[in-house]
Specification:
By secondary structure, this protein is an alpha/beta fold. The chain folds into 2 domains: 151 residues, Ribosomal Protein L4, Chain: A, CATH 3.40.1370; 49 residues, no CATH class. It is built from 7 helices and 6 strands; from the N terminus they run ββαααβαβαβαβα. Strands 2-1-3-6-4-5 form a 6-stranded mixed β-sheet. β1 and β2 form a beta hairpin. The radius of gyration is 27 Å and the shape is elongated. It starts with a strand and ends with a helix. Part of the 50S ribosomal subunit. One of its GO terms (molecular function) is structural constituent of ribosome. Belongs to the universal ribosomal protein uL4 family. Pfam families: Ribosomal_L4. This is Large ribosomal subunit protein uL4.
Amino acid sequence: MDLKITTLAGADAGKVKLSEEIFGLDPREDILQRVVRWQLAKKQQGTHQAKGRADIARTGAKMYKQKGTGRARHHSARAPQFRGGGKAHGPVARSHEHDLPKKVRALGLKLALSAKAKTENLIVVDDLKLADAKTKALIANFTALGLSNALVIGGSELDVNFKRAATNIPNIDVLPIQGINVYDILRRGTLVLSKAAVEALEERFK
């Protein structure tokens, strides 16, 4: 698959041949859903905690005698049915993380890249470098490229000026190639890859 390379200014910079095994697959929603669910579960803090009946600071003595009162049988005032009692089956601090095979994760990334290529929401830029860290200038470049909601993936090291200029632009995410992931690709409208990022991806999936 051949794709046009452009500069940040919008000028033509030749063509790049993309691997069909990475950018030419038929998207599968089930695999993408599994990978996104795995990512979000891993990201979830899991620090929610409710007090059970054992955590309540209240006497555990029997409230009143078992028989003869005409009332229901009760024991501790810490029981969940009483006001101020413990929560029954409440949330506890735990990890929400679950396993996902490496092959499925790798396939998910390929499918996400292929989905962007198939819908023509993939742009390859020759280099992500700026002479000055000027947000206004970068916004003008993005407008020329038709970018308003995008994920920008650079090489192993991002240009400092480019990263600083892009920080304040809403709906624009900038990541090095090590940080590329399925969730961020799918949540943004357009995927912008630098030439170095394309080379790194093809090297990764050899």
